[in-house]
Amino acid sequence: MKLLSAFITILFTLLLMGCDKKSDQITNADEYDSFLVSNDNKKTDFALKEIEFWQNKFDKAPNQTSYLNKIAANYSVLFEQTGDIQALYKAEQLLIKSNLQLNYTDASSLRTLAKNYITQHRFKEALDLANKAFKTGDKINETHKLLFDVQMELGNYELAKKSLVAISDSNDFDYLIRLAKWNDHKGDLEAAIAMMEKASAIVEKFDNKYLLSWTHSNLGDMYGHAGNIEESYKHYIKTLKIDPNNSFALKGLAWIAFSHEKNTSEAKRIIDVVSKKHNSPDFYLLKAEIAEYEKDFASQEIYLKKYFNTLKSKNYGVMYNKYNGFLYADDNNTLNKTLVIAKEEIANRPTPQSYDLLAWYYYKKGDVKQALKIANEHIVNKSFEPEVLYHLACIYKANNEINQIKSIKKELQASVYELGPNMVTKIDRL
């Protein structure tokens, strides 16, 4: 009877384990394999044809600056679809040429070039162009939208809020997605998601496929941050049904497989396919993170080398400064590079995130008092990003301000999915 009882107990335990495993399983390869197998990209093909078409027209009529803008727009699509940084730079060159011909007086061309600079993280130059566009008086609301985007990136939150108020319209898609960003910045993720859902309902009515895929991919990201992984997955699948080559959504699926399901083989399978279609350094960082989780430190080092080699060979400017700064901080031999980058980031965009890098440098250097001083002045209650909060908790602990850690630790434990499985032990040690 004892043996039978023991057998039943073991069987029951195994069944429970099976149920737990099933509950963790959210991804379904049958739903997204077709997006991985396909090598067709209609958006890329169409953009290439459009570039050739408008280039031929411009060659015959070089005084038609509108043709330059159309060519530039399609190079921007190529960058979005392939990750080819040279396509983004080509768009910039064409837009500069267009603005020169128009003597920097056409608001639409100014705004388009500013958006290109935002993508390149050249925010101060983008602000200068946005201000020029504002002075023209043409379509002020469009410029306010741009000003909101730029001022948020620069950390000028009160100025951003003024532009947000200026375009206030609860039935306007552009306003709602910016209101969502504002709520997210304030730490109210629930309100941010509600605004994005409302924006999604608006574009559903008009069947705007580009905006639909953009909205669903962002909702996938936001639901993930909120810990609702099932809803996150659903929105990524919705994105891919509209835009099968959406690298952001595919990367989102890989992250669910890795961070939630701990299925590293599936995560790597997805990444291997996506990284061939979309050539971005981000994927080497994700591969390095997975290798660290698998305790394959040799592969981790290889991926990080490939990441830095890619940045060096293709010249991404300051687009990856934040990532580089924190990576350099992990090695005493490169720690001084973190300080250089932190100062550059603060000069370019004095946000709480930029000051977080500076504070982290001093923490890693051992000057925990200076790290705390920076944190108290520029970070506390100004950013609610889990990574920033983790750094803040480490700085508090180093300064024996233990009472400050408890509430942060609770938030971090709720954000483990967003931070990744490598952070679990680090958070537990706080």
From TrEMBL:
Entry keyword set: TPR repeat
InterPro entries assigned: TPR-like_helical_dom_sf, TPR_rpt
Keyword set includes Lipid metabolism: no
SMART domains from the UniProt entry: TPR
Cell division listed as a keyword: no
Repeat positions for TPR: 213-246
Superkingdom assignment: Bacteria
The protein, known as: Tetratricopeptide repeat-containing protein
